[in-house]
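Lab notebook, page 48
Experiment: co-folding of the full assembly
Goal: obtain a model of how the components sit together before planning crosslinking
Operator: M.T.
Materials (sequences as entered):
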Amino acid sequence: MKRVLTVCPYCAVGCNFYLEVEDGRVVGLTPSLNHPINQGGLCIKGWHAYQIIHHPDRLKFPMVKEGSKFKRVSWDEAVSLVAEKFQKIKNSYGPDAFAVIGSARYTNEENFLIQKFARAVLGTNNVDHCARICHSPTVTGLSMAFGSGAMTNSIAEIEDAKMLLVVGSNTTEAHPLIARRIIRAIKKGAKLVVVDPRKSDIAEISDIHLQLQPNSDIVLFTAIAKIIVENGLHNEDFVRSHTDGFDEYVKFLKDFDLSTVPEITGVSLSLIEKVARMYAATSPSTIIYCLGVTEHLTGTENVLSLANLALLTGHIGKPSTGVNPLRGQNNVQGASDMAVLAEFLPGYQKYTDPVTVRKFEKEWGVEIPQNMGLTIGEYPDAILSGKIKAMYITGEDPALTDPDASRVQKALESLDFLVVQDIFMTKTAEMANVILPAALWAEKDGTFTNTERRIQRIRKAVDPPGEAKPDWEIISMIARKMGFNWNYRHPSEIMDEIARLVPIYAGVSYDRLEKGWGLQWPVRSYEHPGTPYLHKDGNFTRGKGKFHIVHYKPPSDERNDEYPFYLVTGRHGFHWHVGSMTGKSPELVREYPKPYVVMNRTEAEKIGAREGIEVKIRSRRGEIRAFVKYGELAPNTVFMTLHFPEEPVNLLMPNTLDPYSKMTDLKIAAVKIEPIKGEK
Amino acid sequence: MKKLTAKDFENLFENWRNEGYEIYAPQRAPYGGDFFFEKVESFHQCEFDGFVNTLKPPKDFFFPQDAPTLKLYRKKLELTEISKKKIIFGIRPCDLEGLLILDKFYLGNITDPFYRARRENTLLVTFACFNPLPTCFCKEANAGPVAKRGFDIQVFDLGDVYLAEAGSDKGRRYLEKFEEAGEDLLKKLEEENKKTLEKFSPRPWAEQNLYNFNISKDSGIWRELGKYCLKCGGCNYLCPTCSCFNTYDLNYGGYIEQRREWDSCLLEGYHRMAGSNPKPDAASRMQFRFECKLSPEINKPHGRISCTGCGRCIQTCIGDAHIESLLILMDKEGGRK
Amino acid sequence: MKHVFKPTMAVIKKVVQETPDTKSFFFKRDLWDNHKPGQFAELWVPGTGEIPLSIASSPDDEFITFTVKKVGSVTSALFEKKEGDTIGIRGPFGNGFPLEKFNGRELVFVGGGIGLPPLMSTIIYALGRRESFQGIKLFYGARTPADLVYRDQLEKLSEKINVYLTVDQGTDSWEGSVGVVTEIITPERVNPDNSVAMVCGPGIMMYFTVKKLMELGFKPSNIYLSLEHHMKCAVGKCGHCRIGPYYVCVDGPIFSYETLKEVEEKFAGDIWE
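Observation: model returned without errors.
Model output:
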């Protein structure tokens, strides 16, 4: 039996396991005991990751839509059609008539090619991916505060922190192997404070649970900052030597009115003070956060308010400290690093910098666009107003996963030409003109970058089914048909190009990745060992850390009498996103077969519902159904996961944009809930 | 007790291969270096250096992680019963005891034909342990570090020479031609075995609590463990005695496969029936799992507790809800006598 | 030895719609030699899955019958099948009601909703051996009149034995009792000293029925329950139906309440769920 060491395709913790191959089929897997990240453990999704590979529903052949049905065609036909149509549209309407969506699931090499395709072949900066609606505020916010938009410390360091402030993260379900580190820290005597409107499993084992009203994070963290400064608990030396903007920040804190805090947040001042003292006085203290912080209208500002706390106390630039966003998808960090993002070039370099532009133009042999591109939240309007005529969507399902999903579906249907590249027939794929079957992670070589910036090798275990091909080959085929000389023989060659262009990946090459456990960027040169934690000893990437004054803004979709609840969305531990992959594993589907909404028991009874009955959930944008489950949440708050595509919760969510990062206000919608008539 | 050298084993391997056996022995996997039982052709391909145990238990040979049972194609129904002549060379005493428990379970009154097919024609050559890991407690679980039963051959690796004893007629036949071990070697073995017992991490709470399972249904212990269980399924998947499975179908158009995969009783869905769940909370599922391992009534047919001290659940648990946590909680609650 | 996991591919001979969400499926008698009333079989809908179903027909009957309520993916797929379609059947499994032990006693059957089929199989069988028993009585309740299974058979049955029916919610045309099934089991109607009770239905119904029977004076050793615990492999191997040291598919599904009482107090799980 062949044992192929590779990385898990689900979340961004980047656990390693061995795929077990017999007669060309993956028959099981075993976690790696030696690997420093997961040390022999895996979450339930990881244990079942192999079940997607040989599933009967895999796309095997290129298809072209004729009328309302799909017809199988050859690769040559499909690629020629795509190239021809793209060329035509480019000639008639210009490069910005295109929008390209890359995938947080693809390898670094493939994401690099996707943005290169958009910029060098099509000539547009309209390239984006789902990080926009997930951690784009992290990239923007932490860059503004520290100069680097990524997790500052490493996963292994978490277990040695003495105080952990976990904000907006259902860690035990969304990142179980990181929760393992938190639990180890607790068992070693650390204190855990969880900030979440919902009493999640991690809140159950916390020392203090701040059950705040959704969206009131800025108020909470500014209050903590004020308490820290007023009691002299901040790190004066650190602030004086390593930060900018402290004096203006202190003035802002002085004017901040603490008396409004309990009402807006729903948390008492005494509890907030306890947490403030705990965080400031314990060392090392670390902040871990996830989408509860970022997926808001004020997502970037929420991140900045957390960054301020780290700067105030000096809990950064040392092991087991820092501000640590838990990225979601297996390679969303890599997709961001490779700039499948409208505002960056690979490595977070700016196309507003002429030196950078010259570097890329020299390597690629073509002029690259320098106007700001459109982001995911802006595509539906641009399509419906006729600005965007064609889209190339790879490895994502925006029809289900983007906010205001029905508007997105309407937009996609009205495109002149839609090319979808994926492994299963998704809702988005159903609307395509051309479908290109892609290989899975287990069927190709490449690299993923996990949330702690660790670049790891994935390795090919089996061949893709039918005629499916690795994405890097498909994109190259289309580029070649459009006249570009893309002749990569292996992903390692693409990584070599990345190393030439991206300073933080400068020392990465496949021969270095052959041994050891990957490299954490920045990897400044071939000899550089990688970087476990950033901003060492207060030397921030931008020089000095910067304080930012941020103000509370209510959510874009506010509660009122007609829509009295806030619906908060999130994940549970058994499914991944809209279940296109986890839906193929019987033990995962068995856990939660039906869509459910979590409500406070008294609030459920008040509207005439009880556990197990079906209710209608309506927002200003749409309506879905789900079964009631009891739970403990902040008053007038309910919770649903996005895992049930038959009742797509993103249909209900608003699409207002955070001005800094263009993140959409995806986490909260005001909803009305009613039992369905006829239920007892 | 016979004395063997590496060359003797080379000959034995050739002998076995001529008899049509496939031999599986420990080898490090490429890139990660984790140990697995892989097919080998010769003795020198075995990698015993640094080998304590594999993470995936050898139960995988007989009760695989995910394999087809039935195949239906155009009304023709086919059973996937696979039987191959094989030798598990290097199985550890804890896994051997685990296998014997699985044998009692699957080959009893009602026999599972799929397990039986895979289990037959298997020769078990166990290697006694001299270097337990900190997570090992086969000593307290009465399943090692030396195997007492169930093997065809037990090998003791004394470094420059091997000692081997037969545990069955087949084993005796293979060892016939080798020299008897002299007194001095037998004495050395006794010393090494004694030394090994000192190497185990002290677990003063283990002995008593493993054999006195008497926790009430509403004990706070279950709630405490349930709070820290992250429902990863790892303990069940990797436990050498866990035997539960889930059956599911795959529909490939005209061809349908019924398959069997490892299941975990810590998952809510395992217990749920149409409309109700007898164990809706993690606490009751914790009791379900541990009573299966340690309850005297449930384990009567096996003649021993269903835990062999292999320590895998301790290695893989991502929360803090493995058997060691249970025994420590039992100890705290019961007080040590 | 019979291969316990190999299904017999059987043709559906007849399908009858019993209630809006319940259907009966009829198969030829030669699927197996003989079964005992109270036993169950595993029905495999190839491509979807396998589920345990009580055998609703008596061993003397000319067909082998299963009465199924549509509650999940496998039952939904089964409902799509028509006469002439083929599905896989394994069985019979389980222990069945120990009628040999009840000679000379009065048999009191209490059923709820979809719990009637296994009891029906036993009632018909017992009727064929009427002389062995002092008497046979049936108490049966469902949510609404439309949910009562086997209406016609029950009418015919009431000519031979005492059949007491009730519904939780009546309709205008319903003239019978309204209330839960425990309300119609009254002291005048049963004699706890010489009776044996056999109960089958939803967990909560069985819980209250057992309570009522004990209040009326039944001893736990004279109350038998047919448990519906999540059986899958039906041969005591997959582990899902284990309660304490018993496997519902092998040691049950029929248990005396005396046995269950001990299990309920000590081992994990709520037997009434």
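Interpretation: The mean pLDDT of chain A is 93.
Next step: discuss with group before ordering constructs.
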